Amino acid sequence: MDYADSDSDEHSNHESSVDWFITFQAVINAFKFMSRVAGREIVVRDAKRFHHFRNVECSCGNYW
User: Fold this and answer.
1) SS (H, E, C) 1-64
2) What is the pLDDT, as a whole number, of residue 24?
3) Which residues does 31 contact at the CB level (< 8 Å), separation at least 6?
4) pLDDT digits (tens), the chain, 64 positions
5) What's the pTM?
6) Cα dihedral angle (49, 55, 61, 64), rounded to 10 degrees?
7) 3-state DSSP call for residue 56?
8) Cβ burial, residue 35 (10 Å; 0-12/13-18/19+)
9) 16 and 39 Cβ atoms separated by less than 8 Å
């Protein structure tokens, strides 16, 4: 493997993590939106806490 290949691999890994973050943020926004559209509370658990989405607001104050 030459230098160009290894540099390319590092760049790819960095982009993958950014893509994941963007996707994760999109999911959060979807939960917020659906809580308003459905007129219901949506409860989601992450590794540390439960998040309650009501009327486009999260109970944690968007502390993700």
Assistant:
1) CCHHHHHHHHHHHHHHHHHHHHHHHHHHHHHHHHHHHHCCCEEEECCCCEEEEECCEECCCCCC
2) 83
3) 42, 44, 51, 53, 58
4) 454 555 555 555 556 666 766 788 899 999 999 999 999 999 999 888 999 999 999 999 988 7
5) 0.61
6) 50
7) coil
8) buried
9) no
